[in-house]
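Quick one:
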Amino acid sequence: MRDPLTWLVAAVVAVPIVAAGVVAHGRPDVLASDMALINLRIGDVFGPDTPLLGPFSRFDWNHPGPLMFWVLAPVWRVLGSDAGAMWAAGAVANLVAAVGLVVMARRLGGRPLLVITGLATLVLLIGTGTLVADPWNPYLAMLPFAVFLLAAAAVATGDLVAVPVAVGVGSLLVQTHVGYALLVGVVGVWSAAWLVVVVWRRRGKADAPGWKRLGVVGAVTVVVALAAWSGPLVEQFGNDPGNLTLVFEYFTTSDEPTVGSAEALSALGRQLSPVGPWLGGAEEVPGSAALMEPAPWWWALPALGLLAASMVVAWRRQWREPLLVGGTVAVGIAAAVVATSQITGFAFVYLLRFWWPLGMLCWVSIVWVATLAVPTRWASVVRDHTRAFASAVAVMGAVLMIGASVTTTAEPAELPGAAAVGAVADGMAAGLTPGGTYLVEPVGWSLFGELFGIVDALESRGFTPVADARFTIHFAPNRTEGVAGAPTTFDGTILVATSRATTDLLGTPGLVALASWDPLTPNERAEVEALWNEVRAALGAAGRDDLAAQVGDVPLETLLMARGAEDVGLDPDTRGRIDALEGRGIPVTIFLAPAPDGGARGEERRR
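Output:
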């Protein structure tokens, strides 16, 4: 791309992402939850335990492949191999995607599509905020999906260069989050079918691609596909059953209920509404554990109607590229509705981020056709005042760039469990044998965010942590007990006690409390205990003794939502106060226990 405007637009879009990466690189070196696992697996790349699979799924398998780890690892190592480097690596990955997006727009639709896409991307970044420097897989796939959509549209027009790009980016999406598989598959088939039609129609013409060029493109595409899928294929054929088999069996045999068509249409209305989430519109119900806010499906009618109208205009005027961009977006929207309907469990908003690029490109397609369809008399006015219009667009871009930079560098939300890990990590490390090997086990209720963070904190401090075998999909075999190659002798056992276990284990013979953290003051803890007693009585009166027995062990909101017991007659003020107190986190205590079966020292004694 020799057009300097391409790189000017790319630079403007890059500013807020670079700023986000710089700020993120300076974040405190404390990780928890899924981010701790991502940091650990990135660190395994280039070593004997290089990941062959993607992040874990809550359904006891891994997402299909490790490309996200492989892509992030070089930047992670260059920038310091720590938590800040992980955040910054996420920003760099999105920077590459954003630049690729505007370059693809220029290649596909010239300067008009370049400028429109650049401005729309800045708007998207305003809504994305600090997540642009977040390598969590549901977020990391968002901008690359926009690149894939434009690459697929380019393929549909007969652009052979875009074929390996679409295959490579599509592979990254499917491997990073399996929720993109249907989207990539449907859009990929659509674009491939159009490519075949275009190549067939051009046969014998001057612009027809020769067999040599087709062969080169085909060979490059095959190499890209094999390189991208080498990890999953090695794992698949090296294990029985392989992870791809587990994923396939889950989606073909699982009896888990899906959210269904009604909620999918609700997502359509919410995401494509005139002020959709990608534009900064509401998405999440406050206090709902990231559940989608319902919306009527017909909220999407303005966007869908205008998209259809723009495609009709493009078809009548024989504008092939605008027609195929609109068609690709339309096919993607249809696939997104189906994909949303097949989500198992709750439709958490982070699972719906593929709607954001679709929403953005829907309006990009509409505006592009509208600018092309400007009546001749108005087009002449624009040509006569080119400098004034260019200045107006430049000012708009500058304002959006500043706005995006403000949101992308804001204070990010704290990771669940990070405060606890940060509070106990140093005290825990001080009570351990330097460089020792420890079995790490969770005790008590949690979503394991604290456990993941403790393992990352131990490894970053030079210890060798090994988790229970049931966490193989989380930590990988090299960090799980009983797997070939993992340590078999230990200097002790670290118990990550959470919730009620923090007090239940106190005074247990053989246990030493190394460090503890409670988000509540003693008075607040006493208050929440009294409120829990009220809730237990209310649940017992409602015939829900099963829930009453778990109050205090599991956060109330989580307990009621998971059991479908939102309406059991609880006093709203009591519930609101409990939610406020429990929302500050769960207590955590780190205990040191003897190594199982005597551990390493026991082995020495037996010798």
